[in-house]
Amino acid sequence: MKMLKKMAALLLAGVMALALLTACGDNSAPSFAQTAEEKMFAVLSESTGLKENDTEMKNLAAQTLDKIKDGKVTKEVLKVNPEDIEKVDNKYRAKVSLPIPDLKAGDYDDNNSKTYTVLEVTPDNLANVDNTQLTQMIATMKKNGVEIEKIGVAAKTVNGKTYIAVGMQMSMTIPAQSPQ
Prior knowledge:
Elements: H1 2-22, H2 32-48, H3 55-65, E1 72-74, E2 85-88, E3 91-99, E4 115-117, H4 123-127, H5 132-143, E5 146-158, E6 161-173
Antiparallel strand pairs: 1-4, 2-3, 3-6, 5-6
């Protein structure tokens, strides 16, 4: 009888351990930041034809999100440093990243402002993303010889506000020099 109790206790302990491990799976609903990231990547993917949220570009975007302070970011993030541009064959290649601006704030295009307001992503504005302007902008870039090679999207919630940044690797063909 004692042996049966020990076996039953051992069996019960095993079942309880399995029950605990079963609950350890990550099948919970994605966070709003994750949903926003996936939605923005889907919009960019549709506009560019790229199908991978590139890890390197996503990490670059995430680093840019870390520069947001009180919903604003310095316009220094918009500058491409010469050391970040490489020449590959007959192309110049650059990696850039920026948090998505809140264009309604009016400070993104203001040359006198040293910062710009970053768009706070909400369920409402996420549901109403229109990629028409983005598609037109990318078409214009392609027309001017700019190719988007990789994209990465990162989203982060800070103090209850969610922001998105996009990282891109772009290249531009160097026009052939005419002989002199």
